[in-house]
């Protein structure tokens, strides 16, 4: 390996390490802050063991000052040494000196633990600030992408019409389906009909599968359907009473794990705003999807739920 290759390798390793450090800086700061807080507590406990000696010395000095003031023989000794009586004013000055020295000793004893605690709290706050800035950036990026997608759909509708936009968005295709029909004479006959069916991707950003991993799911398809309809009514009632609902609020009602973007995206209830749906839809009765038809008809116990969030709550809520 030549010297240039070695330098390049070391440089790449260094920059990759710095990138990883920057990437995980919030976790590092928070963990370091927590550890520092524990260390500060331990240091404070150790410092407390020295407090008794400092306070005992201070108490002894204060007692001596009072004895000099109260006992005539000690006052006389003070007068012989310093040429003046030990007055009330002199006693107050000496007491002030003792209290000041004691305070400085106590501050000096606890200073290391206080400094470590201050640095630890600063690290935790710094980590939280980085996470908050990243969340704002993610939400801004999502808003930009969402607006671009809406503008794209508007151009598609303007040029090709709403029908084509709906076909492209929901992946609607013509599919031949074999059905059994009953003739007028009572005989059954199998015929092939062409229907428009939807084949949505189950991996949409907000799509979730309601299955046995969810708390409200059971082995009875009819009960699952009733449960989802009830939860849909419940979240819509909350939407009307609160004025807004996040995707995470709906996830929580259904037993799904919350997400970072789900805290910012959601629904707004505003009858005067034509750009919002004013209704939370789980996509249960989208009967163009054969899987959802099977769920509604009781043949399937699980279903992919497709939601209709209005957008970023921070821009929708005035």
Summarize this structure as a short list of keywords or feature phrases.
mainly alpha, three-stranded antiparallel sheet, 7 strands, 63% helix, elongated
Secondary structure layout:
Layout: H1 3-23, H2 25-48, H3 51-70, H4 72-82, H5 88-160, H6 162-170, E1 172-182, E2 188-198, E3 208-210, H7 221-242, E4 244-246, H8 247-254, E5 265-268, H9 290-296, E6 303-305, E7 311-312, H10 313-316
Antiparallel strand pairs: 1-2, 3-6, 4-5, 5-7
Write up what this structure looks like.
This protein has 318 residues and is mainly alpha-helical. Helix content is 63%, strand content 12%. The protein has helices at 3-23, 25-48, 51-70, 72-82, 88-160, 162-170, 221-242, 247-254, 290-296, 313-316, and strands spanning 172-182, 188-198, 208-210, 244-246, 265-268, 303-305, 311-312.
Total E-strand runs:
7
Overall form: elongated
Widest sheet: strand order?
4-5-7
Bin the helical content: 55-70%
Return the average pLDDT rounded to an integer.
82
Q: How many helices does DSSP assign?
A: 10
Q: Main beta sheet: strand number and arrangement?
A: 3 strands, antiparallel
- Would you identify the regions where 5 or more consecutive residues have pLDDT less than 50? none
Give the SSE string.
HHHHHHEEEHEHEHEEH
SSE-based structural type:
mainly alpha
Distance between the termini: 62 Å
**Strand residue content:** 5-15%
């Amino acid at each position: 390996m030549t010297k240039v290759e070695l330098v390049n390798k070391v440089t790449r390793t260094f920059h990759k390490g710095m990138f990883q450090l920057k990437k995980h800086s919030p976790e590092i700061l928070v963990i370091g802050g927590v550890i520092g807080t524990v260390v500060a507590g331990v240091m404070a406990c150790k410092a407390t063991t020295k407090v008794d000696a400092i306070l005992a010395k201070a108490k002894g000095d204060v007692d001596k000052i009072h004895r000099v003031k109260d006992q005539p023989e000690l006052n006389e000794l003070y007068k012989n040494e310093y040429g003046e009586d030990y007055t009330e004013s002199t006693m107050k000055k000496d007491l002030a000196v003792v209290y000041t020295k004691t305070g400085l000793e106590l501050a000096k004893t606890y200073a290391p633990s206080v400094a470590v605690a201050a640095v630890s709290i600063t690290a935790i706050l710094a980590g939280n600030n980085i996470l908050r800035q990243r969340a704002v950036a993610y939400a801004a990026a999502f808003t930009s992408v969402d607006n671009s997608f809406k503008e794209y759909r508007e151009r598609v509708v303007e040029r090709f019409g709403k029908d084509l936009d709906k076909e492209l968005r929901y992946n609607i295709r013509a599919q031949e389906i074999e059905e059994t029909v009953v003739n007028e004479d009572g005989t059954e006959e199998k015929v092939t009909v062409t229907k428009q069916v939807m084949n949505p991707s189950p991996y949409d950003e907000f799509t979730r599968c309601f299955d046995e991993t969810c708390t409200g799911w059971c082995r009875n398809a009819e009960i699952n359907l009733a449960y989802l309809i009830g939860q849909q009514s419940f979240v819509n009632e909350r939407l009307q009473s609160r004025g807004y609902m996040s995707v995470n609020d709906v996830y929580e009602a259904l037993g799904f794990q919350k997400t970072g973007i789900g805290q910012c995206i959601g629904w707004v209830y505003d009858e005067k705003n034509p750009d919002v749906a004013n209704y939370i839809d789980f996509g249960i009765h989208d009967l163009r999807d054969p899987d959802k038809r099977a769920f509604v008809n009781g043949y399937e116990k699980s279903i992919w739920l497709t939601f209709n969030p209005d957008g970023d709550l921070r821009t929708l809520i005035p």
